[in-house]
Structures
1.
Amino acid sequence: MLENTLGLEIIEVVEQAAIASAHWMGKGEKNTADHVAVEAMRERMNKIHMRGRIVIGEGERDEAPMLYIGEEVGICTREDAALFCNPTELVEIDIAVDPCEGTNLVANGQDGSMAVLAISEKGGLFAAPDFYMEKLAAPAAAAGHVDIRKSPTENLKILSECLGRSLSELVVVVMDRPRHKELVREIRSAGARVRLISDGDVSAAISCAFEGTNIHALMGIGAAPEGVISAAALRCLGGHFQGRLVYDPAEVKTPESEKWSRADNVDRLASMGITDPDRIYSANELACGQTVLFAACGITPGALMEGVRFFPGGCRTESLVISTQSSTARFVDTIHLINQPKQLYLHR
């Protein structure tokens, strides 16, 4: 079973990525913060007894040199794998990664950045293209009741009824982008409150599923690969997640999206076997595997986890691992003794 085989090791994968990136917190170098996280995550993955395939990774259109789409990782992908791996016991998995989710947050020393990954058996994760995605995330109580095809006002009323909260008590996270101007206006007009974020909507989506975060929904358009990772976590937690691929540059309203035309994007989707570009995907479709695991480690502090805290001789991390296999969400507090410690950081 995946959790029994890989549970602790995937925690160490996200921990190492987070620690590497945290060294660059507040230094204004987002590319470096991302690069070192990628290197650390890949290095630790290649020490795991598995045959892994990256289905969501770094820079599909940028030809990233590491953790790229289709890259194989793990001991059992080596040329001498026959010396280490028994084919009858081989763990073959698909992996979705974001080694530094919220690179701008790390560079600017802001809250909410994490190292994240999701895994499932081969074929268990949707290989999302490097597109945008309209997303709707909500708590388990609203699962199957809210619907991305409804207006924000309708969904807020449903959410209010499901949670037993007044509209004025609801907090909706939205990415702070020009494309969301009308969405923000409608949410506020309906009586709910908006929390604007600059980056890091995976954390926001997952926070919907936890009581006490004061986040009740995620709405709006963000990156599609991160949508799959969010869906994996919310499937494990029983929360609500829906996504719709956004392939029209006019809907995204960013300079980067205008590098490809609407027709080009439709052709790309068709080449990937996606013949209905307007399909609404549920969490169970985006993370359809029999067993799904999600792991995250805070780089900077967030609603769910503390960031990496350094002390003389080591550091302390807080991670989260969620599993459909055991129906658990475990928070893991770890002290890493990197050098001979002069003191242990024991206070939260």
2.
Amino acid sequence: MRESERVVVSGIVGLMLVLWLGFLVHRSSGFAGSLTGGMLAVSGAALMLVPLAYSAVKRVRALRVVVTRRSSMRTLLGVHIYAGLAGAILALLHTGHKFESTLGIVLTATMLIVVLSGYVGRYLLGFIAEGTRAKQAQLATLWAQYDRLAGAATNEGVASDAASRAVPLVESMADLEHAIRGEERIRSFFALWLKWHVLVSSGFYVLLGLHVWAALEFGLRWFR
């Protein structure tokens, strides 16, 4: 996982959260139903449908075989991530920070949960995994040092010195093992993120469909 990718995506997620919190200082009652607001809504909804393609390719083997001949799954995942984020940002702009209808509020909340759960699974857990691997490598180095000291302790002339050097080494090893166990518990806790992400995403698309239906059913304001 490239650090630059993590920084860029983190910045976009941060921008999305700032835009969402904009309702604290700005609200436009008519923007969502305006021509501009409608164009943002259509563009955002179209972009948020793109991630479905990645999910289909990932889970349908025959489709995956065909698609990956031309594009890697990593590339498709990148499209999945950036299209979803861009769609979410356009959707937030479309709202004009007017959160009054129950459907609109639930849809926006679900969208934010989908984005954040995907972000946690893709980047935060990856960051924790990298940290765990680094600690495991450091622990292996300390174990090698400890084995050398244990071997030297068999020599009576250096036994006392080896024992004194082994004490801080053992303490460092214990601290690292404790940290690794803690990170593994965190990873186990978040291991369900994918199921949670898929479940909430499914609910989001149902709500999105209802929102589109409601917009068409009750008329588009700029055609009045």
